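pasting for the record
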Amino acid sequence: MKKTLLMLTVASLACSTAQAASVEPSKSAVTRAVHQYLGEHGDLCVGKYQWPRVVTPEDQERGSNDAVQLPVLERLGLVRSEDIPASLAAATEATDSRPQAAPAESIRSYSLTAKGRQYFVEKKHSTLGVHGQEVDHAADFCVAHLTLDKIVKWTPPDEVHGHTQTLVKYTYKIKPAEWMADPEARKVFPMVDRIIRGAGVLEMNATLERQDGRWVPVLPG
């Protein structure tokens, strides 16, 4: 009986190996799928989902991203700012899931200009709110777009939650907004600067899944 079970196990492993080999993606299939992935998800965005955005004295004191970045965007003509009553700011703060400011504080509100609205791209995205709930966003402020440079490698196909998947590593080309050439803009958006500098060198990942005999891009999770 043990010998029979061992033979069945070896046969099962051999069958699984053969099946995996039979779905090994070709380079052309991987390239096509990553092109599709970047066509759909290649926008490089900075997590500014809602406008107008307000900056409080507390934001200024702790050097929040908005407090540092929005004045630079204003100098570049992408946003305009104005002082607003604290009561209006509190309402805006509440929708943005941030702590409300005290009524007596001076608040600065930043809105997109016509130039800035060109970079506010419809882009469905979900994040976790301050209480752990999922928050849906319809758009984001995007500063560059990535396209494929070359495929570096991909993992052997594997079963993940009942689906055959492979993880692809690739390098990219990038087309940043023209104003991202500004040294101060690069300084206040350090991650964007790193990705711009990494074009052709830095490796990114894309998950591909086999569906109906084709390899297609899927988002992790």
